[in-house]
Each structure stands twice: as structure tokens, then as C-alpha cells.
Amino acid sequence: MNRDRAGLLARILATKEAELAGLRALKLPAAPTPRPVSLERENGRLKLITEIKFRSPSAGPLSTKLSVAERAQAYQRAGADMVSVLCDASFFDGAFAHLAAAREACALPLLCKEFVIDECQLDAAAAFGADAVLLIVRCLTPERLAVLTKETRARNLTPFVEVATELEAQIALDAGATLVGVNARDLDTLAMDAARTARVLDSLPRGVVGVHLSGIATPDDVRRVASSSADAALIGETLMRQEQPEELLRALSQAAGA
């Protein structure tokens, strides 16, 4: 792990390291059979990943009117293709148990969105019902990323590798990633850069599924991303600000294409 990383990400990773002993001590339930993850475009339509998180460092507290199960069901009704579930408690008010609640409530594939640095987090993701697991290049050395990518697949889960730059994208590809998310938000400064994201997505080779992460709030934003080389887009805070997200998500889904 890059121990010299400054800012918010360093604080998150220090918290993760402190949590590992407790996580390893948990008696985990038997892992359910993972659901298939398919985020390639179909008939030209941009796939949409929706998110369940109750707080974020950039936005502060978000809506808690709907439970995890109620929100997962609402997303499924309104046309989502996948649900990302925040599992970090300290910074996002998440929990691995939220994965289990979403799994029971809906049939969509689930992404465990966590700051993964250790295999025990993969075990927890599998046990609580994830189908894919987020691995963030900036949180790991290239060697560790390659190991965790392999170990994710060994648990029959799909590695979803997050990058921010062309260099990080190459590290992800070298580690064997075939599903790459490009974050428009810098994890240290929280600054947004959609142009950088589009450039990195354009650099991904054929056969690698590219996902635009962060900064999508309106149907126009979805249409912009749909006109890019992205296969899918993640929509998070704009939906989590909605106490009843279905109307907005239907409009976003319509903008995603046929």
C-alpha cells in the first residue's frame, strides 16, 4: 500500500488497516452463489450503476428515508443495471450487512464498494452477497493489486478496478483487469475532472469494459457519457439525495439510450 499518500485517502486507509483484525475475527455466513456481472452496452444503451450510501466526505449526510432494501428495490424498478453498496462505516455510514439486505431485496448484481487492502475484505464481500468488488489502484501497489485481482476471481467475484489516470489504467490492465472504472473525482482533493475521465476511457483497449464514475446528476450528463466510449456509468450522490429516487432514475435511464 502507498503509505505516503496524503489527505482524505490516507485517513481512510489507516482506518481500514485498524479494522482488519476485527474483520478477520468475524464468523462469516456461507457465501451465496454470485450473480453474473455484465456491463457491456446492449443495443447501444449505456448501462447504469446506482449506489447506496448514506454519507460521503464530499456531500455529507444523504437521504436515509428509504432503507437499504427499499432503495435497492426502487432502483431495480426504475431501470438500474447494477447496485453499488458502500460498506465503509467510518466515512460513508455503510456496512457489509447492507450488501446482504440489498441481495435479499433485489435481483440486480451488487458491487461491494470498499477500500480493499486485504483478502479478508474479499471474504466478507463474498459472504454478504457481493457479485463484484471494487479494487482501487491508488490504494495498492501494482503487485498487491495483481494479487487481489486474482484473489477476487478465486472467490468467483468480478474485480472492478478503479483508476483516475492513464498511468493507473495501465497498472490495472497489467494486473489483469477487464472491468475498469474511471473516477472523475480525485480521491485526495475531491476535485472533479470530466475531461480527464473521458481521455482515460478512450485509452482503454477493446475488450475492456469502461465505466464513468462520479459527477453525473442530470439526463444531459448521462447523454454526454452515453456519447463517449464508456460502457456504463455510476450514479451516486444525486440519487442518494432523493427520498424517492425512481422518477429521476427513470429519466436518467431514458437518457442512457435505447
Structural account:
- The chain has 258 residues and is of the alpha/beta class.
- 39% of the residues lie in helices and 17% in strands.
- Strands 1-4-5-6-7-8-9-10 form an 8-stranded parallel β-barrel, surrounded by 6 helices. It has a two-stranded antiparallel sheet with strand order 2-3.
- Helix 2 (68-77) crosses helix 3 (96-105) and helix 8 packs parallel to helix 10.
- It is globular and about 45 Å long.
- The chain starts with 7 loop residues before the first helix and ends with a helix.
- Residues 1-5 have low confidence and may be disordered.
**Percentage of residues in helical conformation:** 25-40%
How far apart the termini lie comes to 42 Å
Gross geometry? globular
Specify the CATH architecture: Alpha-Beta Barrel
Rg of Cα set: 17 Å
Strand order of the largest sheet: 1-4-5-6-7-8-9-10
Structural key phrases:
TIM Barrel, disordered N terminus, 10 helices, 258 residues, alpha/beta
Give a quick precis of the structure.
The protein has 258 residues and is of the alpha/beta class. Helices cover 39% and strands 17% of the residues.
